[in-house]
Amino acid sequence: MDYKDYYKILGVDKQASQQDVKKSYRKLARKYHPDVNPGNKGAEARFKEINEAYEVLSDPEKRQKYDELGSSYQQWQQRGRDPRGFDWSQWMGGGAQPGAGRVPLEYADLNDILGGGDFSDFFQSVFGGMAGSSAYQQQPRTHRGRDLEQPVEITLEEAYSGAKRLLQIGKQKLEVSIPAGVDTGSRVRIPGKGEAGSSGGARGNIYLSIQVLPHPAFERRGDDLYRAVPVGLYTAVLGGEVAVPTLKSQVMLKIPPETQAGKRFRLKGLGMPNLKDPKLSGDLYAEVQIALPRALSSKEKELFTQLAALREK
Hints:
Helix content is 31%, strand content 22%. The chain is an alpha+beta fold. It folds into 3 domains: 6-131, Orthogonal Bundle (Helix Hairpins); 148-212, Urease metallochaperone UreE, N-terminal domain (HSP40/DNAj peptide-binding domain, Sandwich), CATH 2.60.260.20; 219-312, Urease metallochaperone UreE, N-terminal domain (HSP40/DNAj peptide-binding domain, Sandwich), CATH 2.60.260.20. The strands form 4 sheets. Strands 6-7-11-10 form a 4-stranded mixed sheet. The model is unreliable at 93-117 and 131-138 (pLDDT under 50).
């Protein structure tokens, strides 16, 4: 039978406090939980090891016995003895201290007591009697409820200002808030509203999977926005001002003389709010789109003809 180094399994030292043991266990249990690693047999085996180590190190009586066993086992190794020759018999059967006066204990099959198959031969041999004692009866293992995913579609205007939705999820009616700055692919966490846990376990969460609908005028790239701005021919040639609609209001943009089509003007801070820091915003880029005059009069055509002749000289 192989010795199990429970401290190594949980990644703590022998002087670790109960709080440190619990913290390390929770971190590892989340990492190797079967729900996080579906079909991964290696992660499943590691998860069982972690639970077994925590079962021992979180229980003061089991931990005391394990420490005494570990000390004896290490002394055996330090003397150059073969670990396979270690006498396990004095440690088997549960809570009595090793040595004289120990009363043999009988214990039930741990597959029945603890739900079957989750504990190693090492644990069963050393801690079987303790698992059945009235003081340290194995408590039902709690299981956190499953997280739920809910797709939500919003407009670009709602992504800019934030939004609320009334959702029907199962039998629950929930009014949820969607923060400003979200983008397609953002996940908004609604804590404690997922599936109920078992044996007193915490409820799971709901995650809103955000889809921002396309906008007819604005293109979004991260926190920056891009849009075309029609500029009349005469304004583009002679200069002037044009109105640029934003998601918040309308601003006036100064157009220099002889502005070419495709010219981009940066309007600082008029893009999308940053999801992580609402005090920050992206920029709006206004791209000039020359709007040619239509329905020209005879006089206008004549003047354009004269202008063309001047440009040819």
